[in-house]
Amino acid sequence: MKKATESALEEYNSFSTNKMNLVLFTSAIEHIIKIVRVISTPYGNSLLVGVGGSGRRSLATLACSIATYDIFSIEITKSYDQKSWNEDLMDVLKMCGVDGKPTAFVFTDTQIWKESILEDISSLLNNGEVPNLFPPDEKAKIIEEMSSFSQGTPNQKYNVFVQRCKENLHLILCLSPVGEAFRRRLRTFPSLVNCTTIDWFLPWPEEALRSVADSLLNEVELEESVKAGIIDICVDMQIRVRDLSTRYYQELRKYFYVTPTSYLELLATFNKLQNTRKQKINEDIMRYQNGLEKLYATESQVATMNEEMK
Questions:
Q1: Cα–Cα distance for residue pair 96/103, rounded to 1 Å
Q2: How many CB atoms are closer than 10 A to CB 89?
Q3: Which of 105, 217, 266, 285 is most buried by a 10 A CB count?
Q4: CA 201 from chain center: how many Å?
Q5: pLDDT per residue over 159-212, tens digit each?
Q6: pLDDT in tens, 246-282
Q7: Burial of 306 (0-12, 13-18, 19+ CB in 10 A)
Q8: 175 - beta bridge partners?
Q9: 76: helix, strand or coil
Q10: What is d(CA 310, CA 293) in angstroms, rounded to the nearest whole number?
């Protein structure tokens, strides 16, 4: 299974401009399998719950690639508004309903630019459409294009379009459980839970921490025994801090989140410091070598001058 997912990742990176550098440990592969299974079922939608940096979006992207689904996602900019949101929704629904392309709509909580758009997400989960989304002229074009799939009244043709949207559109929602906003959103929009399959992204196990550290420190020029010791220290630090954060919550009822991002930053900091020290040592060696060469050259010149003076 690991070879199959690694092969799928290589294939994705060979065709995509946004290449992903993922370490596929056992837990990550299990999440990929769950997502593929959910979106491959009729009307399957997935809710990925985990803290930021846990790999929800990356694994969802790889899962969609394995399932050979088109991936749709919005891009939030300063000028993004309700009109842009409606246009994006119309585009993805046309892809699914008119073109008949199986599509995964990957949506994260960082893209919730205002809470009211969750009502549209809820409508997509419940009904496969957003009420009054299409202007009359756009709706007329859709009904005309549906004539090749259905013969009947305009309402019947539009219902065929909605049914095709339901069959081809799969939502993958990536939400963080941190804070009150998550609980409030689930209470306000129950379809986020009722119409999805929940996949919890729990803290990385020790095996995952070791696999990631071994991969990121692979290019570091160190003896294997020293590298193994560094990996042990990094894994131990992450596990101990995580345990201390649990104790901190139990004693003071305050959260301190230890995310995979902090672990990756720890490894990146070590790599950066190691490269900086290595570069500094090489510069010192070059400076000392240049100094010795000048001393040798001066010594030779002095010897030559002594000979000439004699």
A1: 7
A2: 22
A3: 105
A4: 12
A5: 889 999 999 999 999 999 888 889 999 999 999 999 999 999 988 889 899 999
A6: 899 888 888 888 888 888 888 989 989 988 998 999 9
A7: exposed
A8: 49
A9: coil
A10: 26
